């Protein structure tokens, strides 16, 4: 099962980690990426650019799609990066999430959401079943 470890952080432009904090954060991420890569379960891992670079597509009141700047979440915490891992179960995914460094550039990590991905094959199967049930 694939699990996405979503890293949430407060975007602070005034946050300046010490050299030691920055090096510890980099070392922690490198160790986690190296281990999960060696085990063959690391599918992807990337930091995200600041939320000021984001665009969101929403449905407007007129039914047309509208593109707006930023995620405009109702919180100061923003999605800062992710790991995509192929884990045998949720417990394994949680064990890796607990190792993500919490003190790093950008103000520090405030939480890591662990969420299983819905395999595309399951979506396709569900859609096929729905279409088969529709009257011709």
Primary descriptors:
single chain; 136 residues; alpha+beta; Alpha-Beta Plaits; 4-stranded antiparallel β-sheet; two-stranded antiparallel sheet; 31% helix; flat
Brief summary:
Helix content is about 30%, strand content about 30%. With about 140 residues, it is of the alpha+beta class.
List the helices and strands and how they pair.
Blueprint: E1 2-10, H1 19-38, E2 42-47, E3 55-59, E4 65-69, E5 77-86, H2 90-97, E6 109-116, H3 120-133
Antiparallel strand pairs: 1-5, 1-6, 2-5, 3-4
Number of strands: 6
Per CATH, the superfamily is Dimeric alpha+beta barrel
Q: In CATH terms, what is the fold-level topology?
A: Alpha-Beta Plaits
Oligomer: single chain
Biggest beta sheet summary? 4 strands, antiparallel
Order of strands, main sheet, comes to 2-5-1-6
Radius of gyration: 19 Å
Mean pLDDT: 81
Structural class: alpha+beta
Q: Level of helix content?
A: 25-40%
Our estimate of the beta-strand percent is 25-35%
The number of distinct helices, counting runs of at least 4 residues, comes to: 3
| Model regions low in confidence, pLDDT < 50 over at least 5 residues | none
What is the CATH first-level class name?
Alpha Beta
Rounded to the nearest angstrom, the distance between the terminal CA atoms is: 36 Å
- CATH architecture, by name, is 2-Layer Sandwich
Order of helices and strands: EHEEEEHEH
Give the CA-based shape. Answer: flat
């Amino acid at each position: 099962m694939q699990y996405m470890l979503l890293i949430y952080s407060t975007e602070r432009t005034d946050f300046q980690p010490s050299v030691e904090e920055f090096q510890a954060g980099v070392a922690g991420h490198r160790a986690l990426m190296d281990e999960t890569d060696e085990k063959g379960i690391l599918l992807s891992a990337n930091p995200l650019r600041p939320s000021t670079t984001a665009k969101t597509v929403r449905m407007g009141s007129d039914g047309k799609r509208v593109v707006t700047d930023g995620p405009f979440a109702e919180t100061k915490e923003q999605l800062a990066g992710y790991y995509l891992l192929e884990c045998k179960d949720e417990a394994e995914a949680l064990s890796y999430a607990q190792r993500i460094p919490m003190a790093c550039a950008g103000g520090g990590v405030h939480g890591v959401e662990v969420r299983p991905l819905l395999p595309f094959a399951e979506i396709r199967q569900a859609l096929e079943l729905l279409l088969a049930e529709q009257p011709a």
